[in-house]
Amino acid sequence: MKIAVLSNVNLDFLIKTLSKKHEVYQTEGYGQWASYALSQNKEFAEFSPEIIFILIDGNALTETINSYNDGVKEITQS
Question: Exposed/middle/buried for 61, CB within 10 Å: 0-12, 13-18, 19+?
Answer without folding.
Answer: middle
